[in-house]
Design brief:
This protein has about 140 residues and is α+β, with helices and mostly antiparallel strands. Helices cover about 30% and strands about 40% of the residues. A hairpin with a 5-residue loop joins strand 6 and strand 7. Helix 1 packs antiparallel against helix 2. The termini are far apart.
């Protein structure tokens, strides 16, 4: 079975390194699927989930707040602004981040403040959705 190497890094450090049979990422223009020997690609990422299907059949889920995706035929590199592994997901902190973003959005006085608050709101909402999907249908 063909494989592709995946490196996911953020400002906090190395998040994941390993082999995959398929990678899905939230590109700016929509989700992209990357298989081994994919043609080269460089695109920005929007807040969302990078899914890595390992050769053993496991699917790893990592939330990214945005960043850059670089694809080479045998290598996928995700340079995330911030990243969160599924095992580290915490609903309370995700909800707090969304509430903080809502407060900043309501208090924005300049166009720059408004644009920044809107971006924070998009990121916080995507993070909360990620956490809630991991926890299951009870939310």
């Amino acid at each position: 079975m063909a494989q592709i190497h995946v490196d996911i890094v953020s400002a906090e450090g190395h998040i994941h390194k390993g082999e995959a049979v398929m990678v899905f990422a939230p590109a700016e223009m929509g989700e992209v699927g990357i298989a081994p020997r994919h043609s080269p690609l460089l695109t920005r990422l929007k807040p969302g989930v990078v899914r890595v299907k390992t050769p053993s059949g496991e699917e790893l889920q990592i939330f990214v707040s945005g960043g850059i995706l670089e694809v080479q035929p045998h290598l996928v590199t995700v340079l995330a602004d911030t990243a969160l592994r599924a095992k580290d997901a915490d609903e309370a902190s995700a909800l707090r981040a969304k509430q903080d973003a809502e407060s900043r959005l309501a208090g924005a006085k300049t166009e720059t403040d408004l644009a920044k608050a809107q971006q924070e709101m998009v990121e916080a909402a995507a993070r909360l959705e990620f956490v809630r999907k991991l926890k299951g249908p009870t939310h």
